[in-house]
């Protein structure tokens, strides 16, 4: 019996020490790791919250920049010929020039849409027209109207000839006109 009591005297403290070690390793260490993880998540959420607060504080500035950009875009869009495709843009350009010419008592004998030129995000619409105008004053008015209007239209080539040399009233004019479009 004495041997059992001696074994118990050594076993109980060893079991107690082992129990404390197990409790420390699986209890205290795990709780400490979870606490550390929770603190890291709180810090990360706090940083994210600070970023959101900063972004929300900058919202009026961003909205002002957006409004400014929209106004700039509208102003830029007014300078180019509208049309979803190149053909529609060319047709719009022809209609604009046709209205200018017929408004000055001119007549159009032929119209041709030429090959587009690429200019990055834009395309250059090219149209050639053969026009008959009553006099040089009408020609001057037509060119002035084409060059000074919005959307911007440019006369690339101009060939003017008198229809009848003895009576130089009517003029035969060949125009090559170009404009920018955002179409595809």
Total strands: 5
Question: Any low-confidence stretches, pLDDT <50, length ≥5?
Answer: none
Any idea how many domains? 2
CATH homologous superfamily placement of the largest domain = Ribosomal protein S6/Translation elongation factor EF1B
Biggest sheet overview: 5 strands, antiparallel
Structural features, described:
The N and C termini lie far apart (103 Å). The protein has 4 helices and 5 strands; from the N terminus they run H-H-H-E-E-E-H-E-E. It folds into 2 domains: 2-57; 86-181, Ribosomal protein S6/Translation elongation factor EF1B (Alpha-Beta Plaits, 2-Layer Sandwich). With 184 residues, the protein is α+β, with helices and mostly antiparallel strands. The chain is rod-shaped and about 150 Å long. Strand 2 (117-119) and strand 3 form a beta hairpin. The chain has helices at 2-57, 59-77, 86-103, 136-148; strands at residues 107-113, 117-119, 122-133, 153-162, 171-181.
Write the layout of secondary structure elements.
Blueprint: H1 2-57, H2 59-77, H3 86-103, E1 107-113, E2 117-119, E3 122-133, H4 136-148, E4 153-162, E5 171-181
Antiparallel strand pairs: 1-3, 2-3, 3-5, 4-5
Defining traits:
184 residues; alpha+beta; Alpha-Beta Plaits; 2 domains
Short overview:
With 184 residues, the protein is of the alpha+beta class. The protein folds into two domains: 2-57; 86-181, Alpha-Beta Plaits, CATH 3.30.70.60.
């Amino acid at each position: 019996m004495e041997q059992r009591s001696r074994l118990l005297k050594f076993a109980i403290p060893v079991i107690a020490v082992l129990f404390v070690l197990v409790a420390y390793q699986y209890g205290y260490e795990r709780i400490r790791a979870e606490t550390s993880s929770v603190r890291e998540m709180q810090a990360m959420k706090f940083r994210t919250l600070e970023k959101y607060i900063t972004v929300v504080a900058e919202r009026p500035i961003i909205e002002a920049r957006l409004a400014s950009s929209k106004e700039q875009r509208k102003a830029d869009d007014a300078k180019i010929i509208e049309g979803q495709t190149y053909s529609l843009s060319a047709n719009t350009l022809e209609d604009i020039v046709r209205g200018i010419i017929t408004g000055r008592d001119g007549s159009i004998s032929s119209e041709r849409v030429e090959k587009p030129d690429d200019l990055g995000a834009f395309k250059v619409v090219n149209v050639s027209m053969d026009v008959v105008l009553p006099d040089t004053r009408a020609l001057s008015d037509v060119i002035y109207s084409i060059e000074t209007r919005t959307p911007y239209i440019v006369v690339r080539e101009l060939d003017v000839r008198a229809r009848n040399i003895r009576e130089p009233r009517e003029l035969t004019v060949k125009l090559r006109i170009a404009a920018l479009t955002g179409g595809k």
